[in-house]
Amino acid sequence: MENVVNAEERLLKIEEELRLVKERNAKVETDKAWETSGSRIFAIAAITYIVASIVMLLIGTANYYLNALIPVVGYLLSTRSLPAIKDWWIKKYKK
Questions:
Q1: What is the pLDDT of residue 59?
Q2: DSSP 3-state of 36
Q3: What count of other Cβ atoms lies within 10 Å of the Cβ of residue 56?
Q4: Backbone angles phi, psi at 37, to 5 degrees
Q5: With bands split at pLDDT 50, 70 and 90, how would you rate the model's confidence at 3?
Q6: CB half-sphere exposure, 87, CA atoms < 13 A
Q7: How many Cα neighbours within 13 Å face the side chain of 94?
Q8: Is the pLDDT confidence value at 2 over 80?
Q9: Longest C-alpha distance within the chain, in Å?
Q10: Is 79 in contact with 41 (CB distance < 8 Å)?
Q11: Could you tell me how far CA 14 lies from the centroid of its own chain?
Q12: What angle (nearest 5°) sits at the alpha carbon of residue 41, between those of residues 40 and 47?
């Protein structure tokens, strides 16, 4: 009888651990989705533009609203090119 109780306790513990792993996996998947989302990319680009515009305005840059696009374009290009570079690197690394 004691073996049955121990087995049930172990099963309950395993089920709880499995539930925790599933919860963690769901959180990781959600975080990954956010990291690659267009909403995140747009938000960072917008914040970068606003901050760059303010800094350039404060330092007296001519056409600050246009010049502030430079870091934004750099950021957007990096978000589009880095996945391709990563894929290339992984293929090279696995050889």
A1: 96
A2: coil
A3: 19
A4: -80, 150
A5: confident
A6: 4
A7: 6
A8: no
A9: 84
A10: yes
A11: 31
A12: 85
**Token couple for 16:** 């709880």
Which tokens go with 48?
């970068």
- Give the number of other Cβ atoms within 10 Å of residue 52's Cβ: 19
Structure tokens at 24: 């963690």
The region that residue 63 occupies, defined by phi over 0 for left and psi between -120 and 50 for alpha, beta otherwise, is left
Q: Structure tokens of 47?
A: 């914040």
Token pair of 59 as six digits: 């330092």
CA 24 → CA 11, 15, 16, distances in Å?
Answer: 20, 14, 12
Reading the block at residue 74, the tokens are 């750099």
Non-local CB neighbours of 72 within 8 Å, separated by 6+ positions: 45, 48, 49, 52
Residue of 13, 17, 72 lying closest to 48 (CA atoms): 72
